[in-house]
Design goal:
Layout (H helix, E strand, L loop, with lengths): L5 H18 L3 E2 L6 E4 L5 E7 L10 E9 L13 E3 H4 L2 H16 L2 H4 L4 E4 L5 E5 L16 E3 L2 H28 L1
Antiparallel strand pairs: 1-2, 2-3, 3-4, 4-5, 4-8, 6-7
Helix pairs in contact: 1-5, 3-5
Length: 181
């Protein structure tokens, strides 16, 4: 299986999400990561970050989406109080849909098929995966940092299509929450 690099992820996300985001008044930035910005009604930056450890032949990789309000418009340059990851903005129902997609992808990763995940029990007896991934029975809470796993381009496309369905409400929730702060 050929490597699906971070550059490939950004290319796929850009080509899949560009029309949706442009329709919302955002413009693509000329950066090494996939990011879009908008100046009005409030300065907004939306971007994707790939896992710093890259792609693995057993476990693929993962990425996340983050938004920030205010200037500067550079991804990640704004105050943490004006930023949020996508998972924090999803409704309980939306988290269920994203969690199910994550479990579907994790279940067919080569590492999962080879039962190669390594886990330990913490002091309370809860299983903690320390190498690889395992499907989980329920979505993490809204305050968790849930990244989107992928192994192939079709996995990234599937995530992008899910995101297309929630981007407009996510931006509205984010702006409403941060606009009140």
């Amino acid at each position: 299986m050929p490597v699906f690099s971070a550059r490939d992820v950004h290319r796929t996300l850009h080509s899949t999400l560009q029309a949706c985001l442009v329709a919302q008044g955002l413009r693509s930035t000329k950066r090494s990561i996939t990011a879009w910005t908008r100046l009005e009604p409030l300065p907004l930056t939306l971007w994707f970050q790939c896992d710093k450890y890259g792609w693995d032949a057993l476990w693929g990789s993962r990425f996340t989406m983050e938004m920030q309000l205010g200037e500067p418009l550079d991804p990640g340059a704004g105050s943490f109080s004006n930023r949020a990851r996508y998972w924090h903005l999803l409704t309980s129902e939306e988290r269920g849909v994203f969690h199910a997609k994550g479990n579907e992808i994790i279940a067919r990763l080569p590492g999962s098929l080879q039962d190669a995940a390594v886990s330990v029990k913490d002091d309370s007896g809860e299983e903690i995966v320390v190498l690889g991934y395992k499907p989980t029975s329920s979505p993490p809470p809204s305050g968790a940092d849930f990244w989107m796993n992928y192994f192939t381009e079709s996995d990234v496309e599937a995530w992008a299509h899910l995101l297309q369905g929630v981007l407009v409400p996510l931006m509205a929730r984010f702006e409403a929450a941060r606009g009140e702060a």
